[in-house]
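The instructor's notes for this session suggest beginning with a concrete chain rather than abstract definitions. Hand out the sequence below and ask the class to guess, before any prediction is shown, which regions might be ordered.
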Amino acid sequence: MGAVRLAVIGAGLVGERHIELVRQASDCKLVAVVDPEPAIADVARRSGATHYVGHDEMLANERLDGAIVAVPTDLHVPVGAACARHGVHMLMEKPIAGDLQSARDLIDIVERSDVRLAIGHYRRFDPAVEAAREIVSSGEIGRLLAVSCVWAVRKPESYYQAAWRRGSAGGPILINLSHDIDCLRFICGDIESVSALTSSCARGFDAEDTAVVSLRFASGALGSVAISDAAPSPWGWESASGDNPHVPPSGRNCCRFLGTRGALDYPNLALWRHADPDTGDWSDPLVCEPRPTGRRAALAAQLAHFCRVVRGREDPRVSGRDGFATLAAVEAVRGSSRTDAPVVPETYSGIAAGLDR
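After discussion, reveal the predicted structure:
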């Protein structure tokens, strides 16, 4: 196989980033861009690709190896089903679908076909995420007791010109919290139950703008996440990591893991411990040990991985069933907010919704 022939379906904020990354990559070639917006024709032309208004016409006319699907979440199943019918491997933007039944439908379609489905929880390709998983799982901070995260930004009013972003699926739980939930699953293990409160008092949309979530992990560790897309702050993955060109970096960490032998600041990793991690107590000074993570290029690393998946050299790092487990935890958050009661995340067809370890 020569260069992997790719299409990008959906050229919004995330889709445009995918287009630029594919254009720059040496092991793949952008052959088509699908988006109903007429202005995208110029974006496609500058990238040496053909512009299509709809995915069906594109799939009927182009010879593809894979597609990056970055359409609104409620279109994931029809677009994914069309790609599967044409034998096109997919990198599907997160979340896998807008609800669990749709996610099951998509997974069933893909598993009956001869295509591979990777879910775009791209932060798993950030070196800090991989390093944090190793630090926690190896016991460097002892037994994990708790984790606390904050994600807060104020999105511009123009962001909500698209009607679907004002609807129930357009709030920060599905769009933003799903990233944090996926990373917490990856680092801390399965989520056993969730409790959540939500509010839409900042904007008054059907979509929530603020949520506070409590988590209980299967290991016994506890977690909390406070999230808002209506509150300016320096705390959040994008602000801390600087990996999103739309969010100026602050360098301020947004998450802390607490263990019996130490604590971990994240995602700019710093390990805090007593000189003797086993016997030190609050009267003893703490020592901070920064852990350099190297260059951050998670989206580009995800693209390179997807090309290897298409070539059959690797399995998807985030499979459809793994994406389902993350969505199940996110849906449990939404369910708890409606009932004011803890919710246990669903599993896929009775199979434990844990990570493929």
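Then share the key points. The radius of gyration is 21 Å. Confidence is low (pLDDT under 50) at residues 350-357.
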